[in-house]
Amino acid sequence: MSFQVMISQLGSGMMTTIQIFLLTLIFSLPLGLLVAFGRMSKNVVIRTITKIYISIMRGTPLMLQLLVVYFGPYYIFGVNISSSYRAYAVVIAFAINYAAYFAEIYRGGIESMPVGQYEAAKVLGYGKTQTFVKIILPQVIKRILPSVTNEVITLVKDTSLAFSIAYAEMFSQAKALAASQKSMIPFVAAAIFYYVFNYVVAFIMEFFEKKMSYYH
């Protein structure tokens, strides 16, 4: 197999990796905010449920969660699993896992805001929603961006865990190529792909941090 063919196959896997990455962020970021609200809720039942959810998601391996989401419908409900379900299982497992981490980051950011911010907004005639969206949220985003960046970078590397349910992302492709060629080159190429991907993500997140620097 030529080097170009190998890179082409790894590139195909990389596109799948990027897809997992983007879909996870699209679903987990807003879900994490909802979970954070639940975690801060005055309702004991909602607060307890979200606390347990966060504890389970953060306290068990993501790989195990992937296996549960993928095989669960069959073992629990006897539902036949199609090969196309792999993609859904990966996104679901990643989204609910990362939502738990983002929820705690959101919660920390929201609870760190001075009470005076809310009081000042109330004096100005802002409602609760207006206060949160226009005053609190922009400052929270600024405060939590470094923590979110760490999680996002971790997500890039965690996408390789999709191999556990035989989903053909880049790491799976690299492993298959290495086995067929009996060479370390596919792994080296994959490592370079991951590094470049992480570098781009870090660059983008740093750009957003600078754009938000007007909040102090």
From TrEMBL:
A Gene Ontology biological process term: amino acid transport
Membrane topology label: Multi-pass membrane protein
Membrane-spanning parts: 20-40, 52-73, 85-103, 185-208
Pfam families: BPD_transp_1
Major location (coarse): membrane
Subcellular localization, as worded in the UniProt entry: Cell membrane
PROSITE patterns: ABC_TM1 (PS50928)
GO CC term (a single one): ATP-binding cassette (ABC) transporter complex
Segments forming domain ABC transmembrane type-1: 14-205
GO molecular function: transmembrane transporter activity
Keywords of the record: Amino-acid transport, Cell membrane, Membrane, Transmembrane, Transmembrane helix, Transport
Family from the record: Belongs to the binding-protein-dependent transport system permease family.
Name recorded for this polypeptide: Amino acid ABC transporter permease
